Model the fold of this input.
Amino acid sequence: MVSSKRNNQLHIDGEALSTLALVQEGLIDPVNKLMSEEEAIEVRKTKMYKGVSFPFPFLLTPSGKKNEACLKSIQKGDIVELVHQERIVGQLTVETTFHINPSDRLKCIYGTDDDSHPGVKSTKNRLGSIAVTGEYHVDYPLISAFKKMVQEKIKETNAQNISALVLAANPLNRAHERMIRQAIDNSDLVVIFLLKPFTHTGLRYDIRHNAMLKFIDNFLPANKVVVVPLENSYIFAGYNELILNALVAKNYGCDKLIIGKQHAGLGLFYNNEQENSIFDATKDIDINVSTIEQYVYCNKCRTLVSTKTCPHGQHHHIHYHSASILKLIMSGMMPPSILMRREVSASILSALFPERFENLQEIYDALMPNDGLMEEHNEEDFYIKLMELYKTSSLT
Done:
């Protein structure tokens, strides 16, 4: 529905809409509403909400002159339209408004308000100084649809042990595959929360999603894995990420969250001047958080191993450094198969560089072995066969 009314409207961006929808669907429970000023002060002081760890107050503080004028004029009981990209996406019944300090809020979320910190500058630009509370409803079918899908999958498979993995898979590599397989070994069902950020860095979500499905559909047992997009808004910043991931996974029905020991958010942080780890912050969240070792390829063992079990030194290890593998992919190069499965590489490259080759069929027929039959081939087929040629070793 296109909005035509200009009074009592709050214009919100995609991050705010997504976060409001997450809370509305009960996926960050016990947070189930916008917090009052008293609740906000208490959460900021204790990092707790209703007896559960929560890193900062859940508030709606949209920026902009129009929003500020609206927030200054509304009164208790007013109904405010929530507008995203010129469309009404929900409404809010006003309970109260109150002022916040944007700098303090940034420090709550990121631990700093320094513009040089990744994320601070973009969040500062979208953060107003007036918060509004009240009952609200937003229309955001994506989140409710995937919540229903996971619930149906749990019921269909009668899953009792449900594990969660939160992955960017940017791109999906062999270490990710090993993590997924290990999770399947110890679970009835694995829910992969595939990060869907609001920024435009790295591979597009649809490319990563298709690559993940290519791996799951062809190389994993049926009905063991389900993929859910997790829109990675600013609330998942810093050490908050693992706390919020644990809450989301638990509220989707998972009883275990599996993370790699190299996860940036796993390290120590300070809370009330005491040293803590993420495990201290998730003890009160009803989910088991477990870690798995870092995986490398060892050219002595000639397989994928954990750094904990491999007896050979670093000089024998090939690391699965996602940023470096991504540079190969973005340059149009096919990573070695010990780094990425050829089917995954082919899926990504064919999406990144469509119609890259002139007369593809002619090149395919000239280079690839065939049985004499005329068959049409696409770019994905070409990359897969090309990797087979790379692996031929009789002349090396």
Q: What stands out?
A: Residues 34 and 225 are 33 Å apart (CA to CA). The chain has two domains: 9-139, 142-295. The first helix runs from residue 14 to 24. Residues 1-6, 268-275 have pLDDT under 50 and may be disordered.
